Structures
1.
Amino acid sequence: MGAEQPYEMVVGLEVHIQLNTKSKLFSSDSTVFGADANSLTNEVSLAHPGTLPVLNKQAVKLAIKLGLACNSEIAKEMYFDRKHYFYPDSPLGYQITQQNKPVCLGGYVSIPFKNQEKKVVLEKIHLEADAGKSIHDQSDKYSLIDLNRAGMPLLELVTKPVLESPEEVGIFINEIQKIVRFLDVSDGNMEEGSLRCDANISLKRKSDTQLGQKVEIKNMNSTRNVRKALVYEYERQSEILNTGGRVVGESRLFNVNNGRTEDMREKEEAHDYRYFPDPDLAPFVVSEEMLEKIESKMILLPFDLRKLFVEEYRLSPKEALIIADNKITAKLIIDLVEAGIPADLAGKWLAGPVKALINQSDLLFSLDSKELASLVTLVNENKITYTNAINKVLPELVKSVGIETSKLVAEMNLTVDDDESSLSGIIDGILINHPEEVEAYKNGKKVLLQLFMGQVMKQTQGKADPKITMKLIKDKIG
């Protein structure tokens, strides 16, 4: 996609989010991930005659939660519809969804793009039941059906066609993933199918106001694949238009093996599904009490946190983006600032070594903000070196919940050595053993200072006071 291309990309997304409920949307089946095939089914999810759906109220609460986070209008009364289509992994022969009265209408999500916040306008967020999963045999002789996923509670978040590049689309999906995790609406694990999306892409000339023919790319479960699919589809449609052809409205699949989108079927319209209100489900009324209770438990989200960290904490946009990435670092920096740690210093710790440890330990990460504040203070007061703090003490604080930082530093014998006489003797020995390097330093190779510093730190196990050590080395070399 070169800068001089004559066409602009316009994308709308349908993001499917599996909700964090213990049971399915209309039945009591468990929603646990990774169970044996077809073990999470009962009479309702298998559509046995005479069975009736019962709405999971928790799913509605989570839907409202996400709607509030996305600045949507919450429906006072919602309905469910039947979307008719035949597919082997759908026992009912239709999907229960919300076509006409969704739980959340409109709204927007702010994403960080090119050092600014862009509002991505939403059309709606609605509840629906997931279908099962078809597993196609590699020999093309068989297709197997796993109905564990049938009836899983989904939210479908639908944007307006306002996204304009694969990069922007990727940032938006990542932002939705952060929001649902902050709210505990979903685990957002794309690799497990908890968050996946369909992308509707059309091309138009830059001077045109009307959008081109829409093509849908379905069922993508990684941000990387979504971006790659959009890049390929842009090139494919551009070539068709450049040669005088006509883009066909259709649904396509992205082949991860060859990096191409492939024809799936003609794109259906709403009337093809024969929507009508589900006669087995009564309208659900959202009471003021229920709405107020959910609103009272809302927390600061990534957008609010980025704004707080930049405007009040005076962090750089990059640091704010990193720290607002998850609830752990966001809570820690707020706690550190409240404990009296300067915001800029707290930001460097959270965006640096703490974030690195979180990336290594993923969701198992646990760190007491009081003990982290104690460690930052000890480094700031020159009682322990920064190197020992992040390499030796910090990992132990994560592993050993409940241990005190001061006791840990004492037990590990990491208190800074600021005894000039002992350091002087160590430095003398190092300089004697490196005569060529000393001479090179005298002749202008100042980078060798780091070599001498490293040798001192090695012999003192990182406990030497850096400032005193550096001064002594410079004085001795002259």
2.
Amino acid sequence: MSLYVDIEKAFPDFKLSVRLEGQNEVIALLGGSGCGKSLTLKCIAGIEKPDKGRIVINGEVVFDSENHINLPPQKRHVGYLFQNYALFPTMTVWNNIFCVVKKPKNERHAIVNDIIKKFQLEGVKNLYPRQISGGQQQRTALARILVSEPRILMLDEPFSALDTHLKWRMEQEIASVLAEFRGVTVFVSHNRDEVYRISDRIAVMNDGRIESTGTKEDVFDSPKTLAAALMTGCKNISRAEKLDDFHAKAIDWGVTLKTERPVPDSVKYIGVRAHHFERVFETASEDEENIFQSHIHKKIADPFKKIFTFSFETDTSGHELQLELSKDTCGDFDSGGFILRVPADKIVCLE
């Protein structure tokens, strides 16, 4: 089961240019609002028509601008879970699912009853969408998609309409469904935590194009671009200048950093995640690199961690960085100046 997408679509103030491939995996499109994630799904589904390019689903060409191929949505066999679930308001839960089953009539009832039981919808099967919860609506929509036997699944911000207490449960339910689905799933989200837990591979989108792609571990450990670093939660980013193969100047922080990985010639920014700084309790030797006297500006309490904004004492421009520590481990970190180490293996160079 595979997906190949290489398309372009231009608007007066925006251009979509996406190349994406996948096979028997969950691919996440991670990006901010307006970057083109949902538009990409609509092009794959046939709701939007690209200006040029090619889309192939499980070996079948469903769109090819050069050969004038553009199959309608119903012939692409794509399971598309919309943000608002798109249930038929005048149909019950049971009928919403029943209406898409493409099996002989004598098999349809058993198929619908089985999926309703699997998704724990027996108690609401005779109710209308307006009478059931958001979580039940989502399960109904997903059940309807699966009985249509799609060749690929596409989930557009599936948890955005749910209350916080429902999100975790629904996320786990969807993850179980995706684990059983034999095909490609394209999962759209702006939430890095959801993306990391659910996906196998991540494509970071910015301004209509995919800037970086890789396994979720690679994208988080080495985001490569500014947009990828921001979308994966890196809160400390400075303009950078390469000094030599393993040293770069963090311009905004007023410090020179030694890196473990070679600094590329194309480096524009340096990033360090808020939980990667290390406190130094002993006086460091003068020749030890990446150790800086620092000063706390603010202390902010989260339910389970403390956030400190600080600056290196060498920085005279007032740029604040963030440090995050568990409440259980931060101890007397709350007051006075302190010394921090920036681990060389945790520094990311960005384009």
3.
Amino acid sequence: MQPLALTLGEPAGIGPDLALAVWHRRVELNVPPFYVAADPQFLGRRAVSLGLNVPLSVVNPEAAVAAFRTALPVVALDVAASAEPGRPDRSSAPAALASIRRAVADVMRGAAAAVVTNPVAKNVLYKSGFAEPGHTEFLAKLVQEATGKVLRPVMLLWSPELAVVPVTIHLPLREIFKELTTELIVETGRIVARDLRTRFQLARPRLAIAGLNPHAGEDGALGEEDRAIVAPAVAQLASEGIEAHGPMPADSMFHEAARATYDVALCMYHDQALIPIKTLAFDHAVNATLGLPFVRTSPDHGTAFDIAGTGRADPASLVAALRLAARLAGAESPALAPAT
């Protein structure tokens, strides 16, 4: 089997803490084998500061699975990290981006089963000249650099309780009305339906399409967008054989009985999607990127600078991200036994 490629994330955040803690509790948590693309000296220092006995093994990806039982495999990067917990420095952005690049390169060449990304601090990346809105768009750029193919990645937030997709992502509310189009909703729905079939093995995915305005526009009384933009998209998806329903009033589509009628909710903007899933599954929701030629998942939380280096970070979301990545990539492994 192939390992999962785990990125370092923001060095000053909780990503390094989580990687070390999850390996330290690997038997208890029953996680699939992974390696961290990082500066091994940095990880060693963080392990010591956390009081964790985590031996590191600097390996190539191909040797990571064999090493995983007795040491945390690290694929060493030439970019050093020096940030202290809670205090990003000049090394933060280069170290975080180098880790992502290495993980993507490994999975693209078949040396890793999937990419799992620890959280980054967007404001730190932006100050370094980073031009992409976030992880999702950067991953698509890396694929384009490697293959020449232009992709439109889709953000899926998944949990056993609810799965949601924001059609528009990191936009100010005032910009949504300019960016949201029938074509964008249709393209998103196609990608979601395809990946739910091929990755999640759902033979006929059910898509619930949220309305943009309160009460899905109340037949035009509360805005024309739902009649003019959303409803035609639903009709187009249905005409293509995709089980899509809507526009549905967003205030009544996330209770338990409603959730049982669909597999994923397509929401028109960021908070419409993320508020319900973070309410229902804050500590174990997973961010998965659809539309890529490989599996990518991530914990659905941020860098948590305030608790970095304290050992208090909850690993539940990273564990869920590792398990989901292994499941979607077909890299699930039997339960780990303690090393002898």
4.
Amino acid sequence: MEKPLALTLGEPAGIGPDIALKAWLRRDELKLPAFYLLGDSACVDRRARALGLCIKLADVDPSRAGAAFADALPVVSTGHAATADPGRPDARSAEAVLASIRHAVADVRAGRAAAVVTNPIAKNVLYRAGFRHPGHTEYLAELATEKGQRPQPVMMLWSPVLAVVPVTIHTALGEVVGQLTTDLIVSTARIVASAMRERFSIQSPRLAVTGLNPHAGEEGTLGKEDQTIVAPAVAILKAEGIAARGPLPADTLFHDAARKTYDCAICMYHDQALIPIKTLAFDEAVNVTLGLSFIRTSPDHGTAFDIAGTGRASPASLIAALRLAARMAEQKPPSSNRR
């Protein structure tokens, strides 16, 4: 991979700056791909000093980031100051957060970077500043819109031991049934199957589709949705040649023996997917947005305001996100990867 990765600042009051600095310090030990941080170098320098780290920063443009990476942490300015202190979010820094994301996407789409890697954001802080998207995933979909065509973003949580995808994402539990449709399950699974072939080198991905209700509805006695919504989706996927099974009871799908039977679990709602992977692989899991015209990964954790600036934050998930982004970017072009 010749082009560097574009890493966003994330919420400056959180651990994003901490883990970016720590990841860069381990660049040689772990042979990390080159990356640059999009943000405010003054903010990054303050955090390095707070952590007691002696780190050289290089204010560069993306074209020079790869060359600078060996000796300094490359920082590409977005022109917006991030003034929030560790553990003390400040809505005045919201534009710095959003500008970092916008610039990262623009850099990848313009060919200046290989992929977008995002540090955690604090949605409640952004909401107070006027942000109107449910989360990162939906905002990235807007930025990826071309010629009026908005892509369907699919959130995958990936780890070496488990990959999961929630069909409904940032949706209140009481609203899941109203949003869940056969078409949505089918379109989500199609995107997953395509991405696993094109970006994960799994030529015949096996998808396990969970039921919505306990015991996948127990033949309709615990809810009809699995018979009327989920099962028809699985039938459509099978007819298209996708190796899908379901609806399967979620409570028996994530133990070791069960995980060996599929490559990705397609789950009906947020916590059904995220609880098992965060239990099994909290420090190794990576958030991947599928369905976009560019690669995006992110650590699978939040801003951790309580430990920001203390030195206690682990960069493990960010390191995993950087590595996965580089791995996905190195795959052959999609057209040559199809059977």
